[in-house]
Amino acid sequence: MPGMSKTKFCPKHKNNQTNLKCGKCGELICPQCMVQTLVGARCRECAQIKRIPTFDVSGLFLARSIVAGIVLGLLGGLGIGFLTWRIGEFWVIFSIVGLGYVIGEGISYATNQKRGRILKYVAAGSMVVALGIISMFTPAIYSLYGIISAFIAIYVAMNRF
Looking at the whole model, is its pTM more than 0.70? Predict the structure, then answer.
């Protein structure tokens, strides 16, 4: 028949029939390939999907976060350990939560305020390093209040990201 067009298929998804074309390059796209933009439907290449810069944690920023986290965890753990040794175990509970905040902020500063799941894991790992150092100095970390403060500190460190 003269008015009928031939069945067309998406080049990337061979089973999807489509008549929709990219508004920029004209390539056939199916609903799975389509990216809706302000100026119409585009293919993924023309839409240029990019991550938000705040959540784009490159290898360099990841390395900086790991180094900053380990250094802060070691220094903070040693500092709280010596503080406990000098003035008593009561202050450990409050100091641990404060250290969680310091570690979170330090990693955030080292990564230029980036955010992301991987940075949460780095902050939690750094806090675990600090807790390991603190546990060598005081048995207060093994008390109920010490365990609760450790979980709160890990939450505070991770919550920054």
Answer: no
